[in-house]
Design a protein that fits this description.
Helices cover 0% and strands 58% of the residues. By secondary structure, the protein is mainly β. Strands 1, 6, 7, 8, 9, 10, 11, 12, 13, 14 and 15 form an eleven-stranded antiparallel sheet that branches. A two-stranded antiparallel ribbon has the order 2-5.
């Protein structure tokens, strides 16, 4: 049985750009003073006025603490000859992150998850398939309640290095805002443990169903962890 506290440090950056174009009935760009537009013309199919093509962009970034998470996990089965290792995990997330800067949700979150994994020896090294499945309940926000799952495997050709491939999914139980009912991503990565109790990790997250919800083309992550 173990208890852990996660305090994430988050850096977010957002950039947006826009281009507007005033056109006449023939689809030509209106240029102020050129006379190629009448008194009535359209902006992307509607409206009236005169003007040139215009571009605008803006960006911003912020750093801070994300939502702090307190978790507890209980191992219920270990080192069985046939059955996988099994554990159950529960946790609560506190709204400590800045919601306006996309560093937190602004709500308390409660989670319950079942975990299964098993390691096998093979000619290419140790192979460890794993599966997590559970629910995430958001306080006073039933439309953001989700069923989450992660399935994949690790392959360790040598004891200190492993590559992994995970499929991560999220199913919104009540998608009222059409933000994406089923989100599925794939994440390949690598782990390196050069010293005992130390782990370096890098991965990339890529959408498998990109048209579902608003998502980045890829998200790169890197980190270091340790225990004592």
């Amino acid at each position: 049985w173990d208890v852990n506290l996660l305090v994430p440090l988050v850096h977010t950056k957002l950039k947006a750009s826009a281009r507007s174009r005033v056109v006449n009935a023939a689809g030509q760009t209106c240029v102020t003073g050129s006379g190629n537009c009448s008194d009535r013309h359209v902006i992307n199919g509607q409206g009236a006025g005169r003007g040139n093509a215009a571009n605008d962009s803006d960006s911003g970034d912020s750093s801070g603490i994300g939502d702090v998470v307190l978790r507890s996990k209980l191992n219920v089965l270990q080192n069985h000859e046939v059955m996988p290792d099994l554990a159950v995990r529960a946790g609560v997330g506190f709204p400590t992150g800045d919601e306006d800067n996309f560093q937190g949700t602004g709500d308390f979150r409660f989670e319950g998850t079942a975990v299964a994994s098993k390691y096998f020896s093979s000619p290419i090294g140790s192979i460890g398939p794993h599966l997590n499945a559970g629910v995430n309940i958001v306080n006073n926000q039933s439309s953001r309640n989700t069923f989450n799952y992660v399935g994949g495997f690790d392959v360790a050709p040598i004891p200190t290095v492993a590559v992994f491939l995970d499929v991560l999914g999220r199913h919104e139980l009540d998608d009222k805002d059409n933000s994406g009912k089923n989100i599925v991503d794939i994440s390949p990565g690598v782990k390196w443990a050069p010293w005992p109790h130390t782990l370096f990790q890098a991965a990339v997250l890529v959408p498998l169903n990109k048209n579902e919800g608003l998502r980045a083309n890829q998200i790169w992550t890197a980190g270091i962890g340790g225990n004592f």
